[in-house]
# Entry
Amino acid sequence: MSKIKIGILTISDRASQGVYEDISGKEIIKVMSEYISSDWTPLYQVIPDEQHLIEEKLIAFSDEEGCCLIFTTGGTGPAPRDVTPEATENVCKKMMPGFGELMRQESLQYVPTAILSRQTAGIRNKTLIVNLPGKPKSIRECVQAVFPAIPYCLELIGHPFLDTNDDHIKVFRPKK
# Structure
């Protein structure tokens, strides 16, 4: 079996220009390293808040690189340059609104501004794309909320079994 590829796409004008270090994408890699025990590799990139670039990279990670899962971080707020959800919707065939609903519900336990977040998720061919917030603490909270459903979702869209580390996360799979 080939190594599992997971795309990690940080969307930030300033991080892409080197104004500051991207810590959000690195947090996703850290969390996935804790949660996944299967052999996997991250495909990581930082790009500016440009919708066409986001769409191009999501398509490349999915169609050319064969990622089963892509996490984005950043660009999910109400600001004019926050266009990650629009890019995700444009490249996906099926939207999975439950992911965004659960992430906002989780974040609302910590900050009332969680209602401003527009994260979503969708499926492009055989790739699950999940938009995460931009702050590392929020990333961990949101991934912890939605990850229990991700391995089974990946199986349903045609990927092999993803082994996880029960010491860090409990995932749900229906009994066969």
